[in-house]
Design a protein that fits this description.
It is a single chain. This protein is of the alpha/beta class and 128 residues long. The chain has 5 helices and 5 strands, in the order βαβαβαβαβα. The chain has helices spanning 12-24, 35-44, 63-73, 87-92, 109-120; strands at residues 4-8, 28-32, 51-55, 78-83, 101-104. A 5-stranded parallel beta sheet has the order 2-1-3-4-5, with helices on both faces. The longest helix is centred in the first third of the chain and has 13 residues, at 12-24.
Length: 128
């Protein structure tokens, strides 16, 4: 069974590219442009969500606030934050903490895949 990633990224081009890459690597991707939509999707999705992969700075609600809301419904959900800000700045501002994984933007797709394998293990491709 494919692992499911809830991807939250407000930049359309970045979201589309990441979605395409993740699907080619064998993940099921639930892509959202904003935190409120991601919370709705997480409540309505009938299957398991294995990972929340989210930008930190977004309009309306930051990634940490959204992650906290989703984690209330799905304790133990793994989370990877992404941002153009350095990890130290985000830690100092309280937007992330060391219990979560972090990817500094821009990142190579290879770096993204290495992070996902570190957090989830190798993608589980379905046999056709």
């Amino acid at each position: 069974m494919k692992q499911t990633i809830l991807l939250v990224e407000d930049e359309k081009v970045v979201r589309s590219l990441m979605c395409e890459v993740l699907e080619k690597q064998g993940y099921e991707v639930l892509a959202c442009a904003e935190p409120k939509k991601a919370i709705e999707v997480s409540m309505r999705h009938p299957g398991r969500i294995d990972l929340l992969l989210t930008d930190v700075i977004m309009p309306g609600m930051n990634g940490r606030q959204m992650a906290n809301r989703i984690l209330e419904m799905m304790p133990g959900l793994r989370v990877v934050f992404m941002s153009g800000y350095t990890e130290n700045v985000l830690l100092d501002e309280g937007l992330i903490d060391s219990q979560f994984e972090y990817l500094q933007k821009p990142f190579a797709l290879k770096t993204l895949m290495q992070k996902l394998v570190h957090v989830l293990g190798p993608p589980q491709k379905t046999v056709q």
